[in-house]
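Q: Predict the assembly, please.
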Amino acid sequence: MTPLTVRNICAILLIVSSTLDLISNLMYTGRDKLKWFVETPTYVKWERGALIAAFVIAALGVALLEIVLREAGETILARLGATAFLIGAVVAIVAEGQSLSGATSTSALEVIMVVVLFVAEAILGAALLTSGLLPAWVGWTMVAWNIGWLIVLPIVTPRNIYFPALHFLLWLIGIMLLVVR
Amino acid sequence: MSLTTMTGIALILSTLIYHGGLAYLFARAQFGEVLKLPRRERLLIIARHPDAYRWGFRIVLVGWIVAALGYVMLAALLRDAGDPIISTLASVLFLIAIASAFVFWAFSVSPTLLAAEETARTSNVPAYYESLQLAAESSLGVYQLLGLLATAGFGWALLQTGMLPSWVGWMTLGFGVAWAGVHLRSDETIPLLPMVMQVVIGISLLLK
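A: Predicted assembly structure:
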């Protein structure tokens, strides 16, 4: 049986957070776009609640990722990335919590959250690159994905740049942490 | 001064400051009645004691900040004592909880004072107040749940490391889990609960 090391728990938390995000996204798409489900307050609570839980668990996973990166020799970028991600996750939890309690506009919070999360994850990608913890392509993918969307979204959809699924490429790090030894 | 002593002092101080702030609110701002009355009557009472209300919540805010610092130091102690995982997770949960408490503070204290002034002047509760209160209360719920889970996490980490007598760990773990369970099963929010066990852990650290 695989032992519960910091690395393994970190990987599990990152994968669980991405799965919760996926569930929340499917619930949203089913309700808002495909009209499969009727919108009820309970349904919306579960949908947004899953996303809030995803951000909390992602913050826990990234906190452990910082320890794993530190042990692999990367100290500065790992700490910067984890701190920025914690800030972004808190803003995300606040924005989602506000929308759950009926706030009509949380767009300013959403812009802050999106920018901070993309920058944080790009820094974590750079930390993966410099530490050599995972194959270089994982780090490059993280950097390119996050910087790319940060540039593309304000041009393509300037009215709404918040797409939660884009912040959960963390599953890739989680799976690679389990696979690569 | 060692990190253990500093952590113990910070944790004890956080509880004393936080509960001191609450005591100030109860003694000087009729907070007991504020908690029981409907919104309009509550605002009228607050309008009579705006300074006491503001200062009471400022003291509470300082208590939260000191608790966050104390728990971050405790996490460092627990990491050095051989528990890198649970202590890190607990401190991250507590930091998110405190951030939610700050959001509650920002959405509740100043808007409440403005609404109290307006209610006293016009006899009507302003329309914006209801939605702001709902947002503030949801943040307080997040604070309480995550704060109690963090408390349980610190209890678990204390048990793992054997840094303090095991009854401290069990008590902290049991307190966090039990009250988190109660919170999940009811809509009642008791915001002082995540600010209780710090005093037990702090005194135990100083006696170590």
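The mean pLDDT of chain B is 90. The radius of gyration of chain B is 18 Å.
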